[in-house]
Automatic annotation (TrEMBL):
Keywords, in A-Z order: Aminotransferase, DNA-binding, Pyridoxal phosphate, Transcription, Transcription regulation, Transferase
Single Gene Ontology MF annotation: DNA binding
InterPro entries named in the record: Aminotransferase_I/II_large, HTH_trans_reg/aminotransferase, PyrdxlP-dep_Trfase, PyrdxlP-dep_Trfase_major, PyrdxlP-dep_Trfase_small, Tscrpt_reg_HTH_GntR, WH-like_DNA-bd_sf, WH_DNA-bd_sf
Top-level taxon: Bacteria
Origin species: Alcaligenes aquatilis
Protein name: Aminotransferase class I/II-fold pyridoxal phosphate-dependent enzyme
CDD domains hit by this protein: AAT_like (cd00609), WHTH_GntR (cd07377)
Record family assignment: In the C-terminal section; belongs to the class-I pyridoxal-phosphate-dependent aminotransferase family.
Any single Pfam family the record assigns to this protein: Aminotran_1_2
Amino acid sequence: MNIQGSNAKELFDDIRQQVALGRIAPGQILPPVRELAQTLGLNRNTVALAYKRLVSAGVADAQGRRGTRIREAIRELAREGHGASSALQDLASGNPALGYLPAPTQLTAGVRGQTQALYGADPLVPELRAVCQQVFHKDTPSDTDYHVSYGAVDAIERLLQAFLLAGDKVGIEDPGYLNSINSVHTLGYKPVGIEVDSEGIVPASLQAALEDGLRALILTPRAHNPTGCSLSRARAKQIEQILKQYPELLLMIDDHFWMLASSPYRNVIPADHLRWALIRSVSKGLGPDLRVALVASDLQTSERLSQRLASGAQWVSHLLQQMVVHGLTDAEIKAQTRVAQAAYVQARADLMHALKKQSIPFWDSEEGFNLWIPLDREAEPVLAGLAARGWLVRSGQVFGVSSPAQGLRVSFANLNAKDAQRFATDLAQVLQERY
């Protein structure tokens, strides 16, 4: 490894350039500070400063006594849904049922008579601000401000960038939401898996991560993806008590299923927490293609988020905002949403009943479109067996944070009772064949 430079800036530039050109490979450990300082005739503090800048820039990771290692290249990212058509019955996409979403023509009724917004207009239209107050007032303090973003992941990314530096540790449920995992990796933060069970994140796992320097936490209060689990009342209280010890932690609550939820929202945000945001996307109820999420936060976090929005997209289209207002207030669309909610509850119950009849273990869930079936073996042979019988199901491996998760995620939004019985029978046969 031929590193050159006479000061910290030159060392930083030289190493970064060599990494970019592939001369220093991902995963390689840089020479010890003392060794490189002696080789170049520099003060050890000069080399240490260069290494610190590499870590801050996301080029390398500091690993204590193990040295400074060049960060691994970003892995090829798995995505939610799937672009290719398939002859298989889709239980893999994680999507809502298209038939329960409002038609675009219903939503565009909200922009009839509207004029175009110009530069300098308030980023949040007054009608949507009023809706935000109705949506959030029961679950947030009085000193709360509101924003709108291009979806929940957009809000999470902007919040992370507003408060964190490259290499900072971000807690994610393990197994966790694929898009959150991807965002943390792509932005150069260090994902830390927080164990999950049927009641939500495990307190001991969260406590250990916080004690190890966690800077931010992304938490799903209900309809956790991929398991479908929701926080129990007792678990939410436990988590809140733990978080009271860490008021400066950036706490992001992704309540993505709020529009269709039948279980109550369980708050975990301590009353005096300094940095928090409650994010509620309209994707599950009005459709993912709207790309809109509502954000409530404390005033300091609101200011930081506002700055990040202003330096990027500046505002979410006012036309989209008016469509969301219409979707959340129109009587006909609200009635459709209630029908969808009941249908998803029934579909979940049908699938759980079918699996129980076949003695197939699963995580009991209350919300969402997904059910988690744990496996005691690799998922790929099971997926192949199901595909041979006409089913497309998602491997749980991609949802793992600390290590690949052993399980299947079954998305049941379009599954009827008859097909649920057929799927459970086929899965039981596949599992028996693979013993």
